[in-house]
Design a protein that fits this description.
two-stranded antiparallel ribbon, Alpha-Beta Plaits, about 20% helix, alpha+beta, 3 helices, single chain
């Protein structure tokens, strides 16, 4: 089992969800987050004053998958989350972490059975 944590642009959520659904990955948690990477924020003019925003709005997806779904999940996020053909700075990151255990609260199932359908 793996926990896939992806940081993506908010406007890419629908595309990513659609790409994941095509690969039978439906279960995820989505959180509004803010952060900065190589973008280092942006500057805009608001009411005649220049304002620097250092933390850019992003979405964090947390997806628990069984081993056979890891590569398909990562591939779906990469292709659907990328801006344009080659991508741009700020498209996000994907982290794949080992998942020691999972428990479905309703039934008490543990491990891979708790993640699966």
């Amino acid at each position: 089992m793996k926990l896939i944590v992806a940081i993506i642009r908010p406007e890419k959520l629908d595309d990513v969800q659609r790409a994941l659904a095509e690969r039978d990955v439906y279960l995820m948690t989505v959180t509004d987050v803010r952060g900065c990477g190589r973008q280092r924020g942006y500057t805009e003019v608001y009411r005649g004053t220049e304002v620097t925003t250092r933390l850019v709005p992003k979405l964090k997806l947390e997806i628990a998958v069984n081993e056979p779904f890891v590569e398909a999940t990562v591939e779906a996020i990469v292709h659907a989350g990328r801006t344009g053909d080659t991508g741009t700075v700020g498209d996000g990151k994907i982290f794949v972490l080992p998942l020691e255990d999972c428990v479905r609260i309703r039934t008490g199932e543990r491990g891979a059975d708790a993640i699966g359908p």
